[in-house]
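User: I'm putting together a teaching handout on how multi-component assemblies are represented. Below are the sequence lines for each component of a complex, exactly as they appear in our records. Could you produce the 3D structure of the whole assembly as structure tokens, so the students can see both representations side by side? Please keep the chain order the same as the input.
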Amino acid sequence: MKHDTMGYAFLDHTGDIGIRVWADDVKGLFEEAARALFDIITDRKKVEIHLSREVAVEGSGREELMVAWLNELLYLHEVEELLFCDFALSEIEGGSVKGVAMGEKFQEGRHLIKTGVKAVTYHQLEVKEKDGRWQARIIFDI
Amino acid sequence: MADQVSIQLKKIDAYRWLVPREGGMRTDGMVYADERMMDDIKKDQSLLQVRNVAFLPGIVGYSMAMPDIHWGYGFPIGGVAAFDEGEGVVSPGGVGYDINCGVRLMRSGLERKDIQGQIRDIVDTLLVNIPSGVGSHRKDLKLDKGQQHKVLEKGAQWAVDQGYGLWNDLEHIEEKGRIPNADPDLVSPKALERGRAQLGTLGSGNHFVEVGYVAEIYDEKVAGDLGLAKDQVTIIVHTGSRGLGHQVCDDFIRVMLHAAQKYGIELPDKQLCCAPLASKEGKEYLAAMACAANFAFANRQIITHWVRETFEQVLRMGPSTLRLDLIYDVCHNIAKLEAHTVDGAKRRLCVHRKGATRAFPPHHPDVPADYQETGQPVLIPGDMGRCSYVLVGTQQAYEETFGSTCHGAGRLMSRHQAKKRAMGRSITKELEAKGIYVRAASYATIAEELPEAYKDVSDVVDVVNGAGIGKKVAQLKPLGVIKG
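Assistant: Of course. Below is the structure of the complete assembly, with chains in the same order as your input.
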């Protein structure tokens, strides 16, 4: 899924885990951040696409939307025991994000849980456009 | 990683460091640490977080950090801050996502030799009886909405009502296992949904149940009063409010981001968003937080019951021989309205403890009757490979830190660093060579929870003992552990 203009890297944070994400456009940024989240949770290569969930969240501003989007995915992961491997954003406006998360139900034995993520935090949160590219800094509570 | 800010530090004595007030700070910061620890503390951004907390309105006394301080989000882990009930604020980020994450300690009528050769059986059976890992829960514990509301209102009392444990367990839980004024109607349907199948589950990360023994006693008299003796088998349970608490925190951080704007509160970090204690938002957060805290009390109470059942099952002994009595249960992540004396005047304060433990002194009315002479027991778990400590609260802690002390070892390495260190090693085998049998729902957790990823808890405890904000009573060593 990754190509040159899109990606993420881990940041060293003592208590928790942080990521820096970059992409050419804001949709790509939200999708890549979600992939990073599920790379932390599981081995995403072992997750197949058997189902999808429509996700729609609201918030004021890109930063609040990013946290809301990722926390919604965590909620679905926890409540429905789902693992997602890919994401497609259909709409992003000032106050809302709509998209699809694709994956399957967690299966003991076949899937690995690497790290339990409790929440997506607002600590040092950044979502911004710089020189025509988008980047984000996100810290998760582990 | 981010913007490095240099923080001024003034050494006060062997254990105290002042962060002098500057810029937007409303008060000084105070960090409890020794010289060697301070070298590590300076490496991450936790001191900046001590400074940032001092920006919040209505803060009373210092913005404090215990020696297990490490970089959190918003407040530092190990942070303690009190706010005036009238002029101060409450901040969900000052409590954290895992509301009322906490620890309880049980003693037993067993000695180490009584379970020799059976520790594997005990640990394996604990892992069967206590759900941990994704989606795992007991089929015999299902709640409808009405019952779930009762859990949120009544906490550990609900659990005992249902037959999980004993009435006298409640005497030995902070707040008797029930924070008053909990209002389940303020908990969102999403939070309820996340909590529905998670009552009576351990969760992942650093949560655990540990069987250990008393390795050393530092104060015979107090240890005796707590019913602790050398070589006695002990059990520690460490877990919190699970997804329900995480969701309550997330829901209210969103509320507080807007509230902070509405009330004109300037924030050095969004995660510190807050509202006045006297406001609707502030009151509603405390009433929802109480629900999550009560869920956590019930969770630890139910798990305690299953620990007792496990020992009965494996050792084929009855409760009167096992005598698995609860010594105490403390919260690590909580904000509570408490009465404190500041400059000679009695005041009501909202004390935030984020990765810190209440440590009330002897004769305090909130300390259980049988501990009136000893002070409130404080339980400090270490990493899997070293040891844990039992302390008691002191008058000095009451006067200096609003009755607070440290909560654990505190991380030294990031999870990423820890995993790199663990690469190519079998941590479970290394621990087994030291006589510690570890089982986990997910073995990836064990690499992240590598003992050397943590500060040595003995150093942390020596600082609070040396500074007088906690009194060392006994050291416990692990024999077997289940991890989430």
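A couple of points students might notice: Chain A has one domain: 7-141. The longest strand of chain A covers residues 82-92.
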